[in-house]
UniProtKB/TrEMBL annotation:
Substrate binds at residue 337. Its cofactor is pyridoxal 5'-phosphate. This is Aminotransferase. The modification N6-(pyridoxal phosphate)lysine is found at residue 194. Keywords: Aminotransferase, Pyridoxal phosphate, Transferase. The lineage of its organism: Bacteria, Bacillati, Cyanobacteriota, Cyanophyceae, Synechococcales.
Length: 384
């Protein structure tokens, strides 16, 4: 059946009908009073979602654009930074920092393992001269399904007193608690096609006071991504460049839905779906890729033994029109990833689990009897 594809990947995520309908409106002038009203409204909504009273700036771009903007707006050429690397996106921020001539010290962990906060503590405490200007962290590592201990790492950054913390919250914001003001996070970046429940195209950067102070002396090259321009325009409920107008319509509608559900309920739903998905995979007999206790509430990575993970994805898509994510780089064929992020409900989890079980049965690769995964998922959904 056509037009029945179900997205169970970590982005783009499913989009609610009311958000799609909002986006279908005719565009309006981006310098009009009507659009300024929408900017004012979404600014308040974004501050609510980010749990901050400070700026949350909106870019026409992806989460990568938001992260690049976050890095280049608070640092200068040759600055020393610590960059956490335990997956594809940690690797990406190392490359971005190096591309801008930063002095990068990599804090590394194996893919599937979380970053060790003690490694950051040791590096920061050894910096008696206070030369480290920033710590760059991926909160939820999308490539491996690992969530890093941002709160503990941030405490070590705060003890250093000089360094800023720059956070990739692309698949954690809107899925788990990221209390920016409470934790004193300096720069937090995210993208629209994840927990926001809207299509790709918007990047978000939340900046605190310490970050804005660093912006004054930052000398890395920037023009379109100069957040100073966005901050100045935001004060007038505007944008320095042509914004993605219809995505603003979508953003307003999606954030209204999120406010109706409430932050606590949103976080609880994502954690319940992680619990149900991991319980199901274990009942089926499929090993999890992320280290125990470190699974992301946004995505579960599964490492089947004795069968190509791409075959499972292929059958699930062909037979059931459910799209799972594959492994990246050296994990291709070894891992498939189940997204449970954004506009996902209990029914979606049960359908995905059932489809995976049926695919394994068709491939004659089911470790355990058919139905064990669905039963485990159903029990987990009821228990949390």
């Amino acid at each position: 059946m056509q037009d029945k594809l179900s997205l169970m990947i970590p982005g783009p995520t499913p989009v609610p009908e009311r958000v799609l309908l909002a986006m279908a409106r005719h565009p309006i002038g981006h310098r009009s009073a009507e659009f300024q009203t929408i900017v004012a409204r979404t600014t308040e909504q974004l501050q609510w979602l980010h749990q901050t009273k400070n700026n949350v700036l909106v870019l026409a771009g992806s989460g990568t654009a938001a992260m690049e903007a976050g890095i280049i707006n608070v640092l200068s050429k040759g600055d020393r930074v610590l960059c956490g690397d335990n997956g594809k996106f940690g690797e990406r921020w190392v490359k971005v920092a190096q591309a801008y001539g930063l002095d990068v010290q990599v804090i590394k962990a194996e893919w599937g393992q979380p970053l060790n906060p003690e490694d950051f503590r040791e590096a920061l405490e050894a910096d008696g001269a206070k030369q480290i200007k920033a710590v760059i962290i991926t909160h939820s590592e999308t490539s491996t399904g690992v969530i890093n201990d941002l709160e503990s790492i941030n405490k070590h950054v705060k003890a250093h007193a000089e360094a800023l913390i720059i956070v990739d919250a692309v698949t954690s914001l809107g899925a788990t608690d990221v209390p920016i003001d409470q934790w004193g996070l300096d720069v937090v970046c995210s993208g629209s096609q994840k927990g926001y429940m809207i299509p790709p195209g918007l990047g978000f950067v939340a900046m605190g006071d310490r970050a804005w102070a660093a912006h004054k002396t930052s000398n890395l090259p920037k023009f379109y991504l100069d957040l100073g321009k966005y901050r100045k325009s935001a004060a007038d409920n505007s944008n320095p460049f042509t914004p993605a107008i219809n995505l603003y319509f979508a953003l307003e509608a999606a954030l209204e839905m999120m406010q109706t559900e409430g932050l606590e309920a949103i976080f609880k739903r994502h954690h319940r779906h992680r619990h149900a998905t991991t319980a199901a995979m274990q009942a089926i007999g499929l090993p999890l890729y992320a280290a125990a206790g470190c699974g992301s509430p946004a995505i579960t990575a599964v490492a089947p033994q004795g069968i190509d993970a791409e075959l499972i994805r292929k059958v699930v898509k062909k037979r059931f029109n459910i799209l799972l994510a594959g492994g990246q780089d050296h994990l291709k064929g070894h891992v498939f990833r189940i997204g449970h992020l954004g506009f996902v409900c209990d029914r979606d989890i049960l359908c995905a689990v059932a489809a995976i079980e049926a695919a394994l049965q068709e491939l004659d690769a089911a470790p355990n009897p058919m139905g064990a995964g669905v039963a485990a998922a159903a029990a987990a959904l009821q228990s949390v």
